[in-house]
Amino acid sequence: MIKIIVDCFGGDHSPIANVDGALSALEKNQDLYLILTGDETALRAALDGKSYDAARLEVVHAPQVITCDDKPTDAIRMKRDSSMMKGIMMLRDCDDIAGLVSIGSTGALVTGALVRLGRLKGVIRPTFCPILPTMTGGIVGVCDSGANVEVDAAMLRQFAIMASLYLENVYGITSPRTALLNVGVEPGKGDALRQEAYGLLQETECVNFTGNMESRDLLSGNHDIVVCDGFSGNVLTKTTEGTALEMLKLLKGKIYSRLKYKIGALLMKQMFTEIKDFMNYQNYGGSVLLGTSKVVVKGHGSAKAVSVEKCIEQAYKMELSGLGPKIEAELAKYEHYEE
Question: What is the pTM of this model?
Fold first, then answer.
């Protein structure tokens, strides 16, 4: 049985989305056990009237909520009875609990995970790795997408190693093609950091390094992983998601602007539905935090039930694949290894 904690507060649609997503994941995975943290009265109300296996679902009372207005360092000290911190402490103290899923404050989650859980052996800094769809029907991971604004070349190499193992073990992508985000595709492009990282990635046998990648090529399907610092990765990911959403709005507006467009859209309704589902980030789960001692998955603050379910699925597969020990074993082969 794989036990996963679901922090049920802190999101735009909490706790309903968290509870509904949890129940859906529970139904689809018979060896999954979920622990819901949050205000017990609200959680029981959200569960009321719904069908689920009560033997595989537990509710832990945590009356406080960490909001995005809370300073992360203060939140993890002052709100120990919050749904997030209660979950993190349980994850740390219970060997039989595999991971945590949260759609709450990113800063508090990262800070709490680093301070209370710690890193896998050899990891310099844990990193976020969200998944986006590509134009060829595949996926691409962006690593890092916000956990580390300032990095060095050794950290970028570790990001590539951890992300490669993640996509291989969780998504079944053999030897994922890994690129370095840069201002041009030529080997000599970029600042000193990018040039040093380029050299290190070329020397890393476990990484299928394909060279530099410009941001416009993110969704092309030519790459499975893009390695970058957290600042660039966060801008890249949010710009891409935002552009997709705005394009859908533009398309919808144009369709309703003329009668002939409406008639044409009616004939193409199935295609538009498929495109909408393809471009909807809710269908791709959250950002896994690679490098922490236990599994942590951060979902979008606006996550709905389907997204929460996908986040739980990510955590489930990470634990099932034994990803943590594999990361430790691979990192031990390279310099900058830390005890």
Answer: 0.91
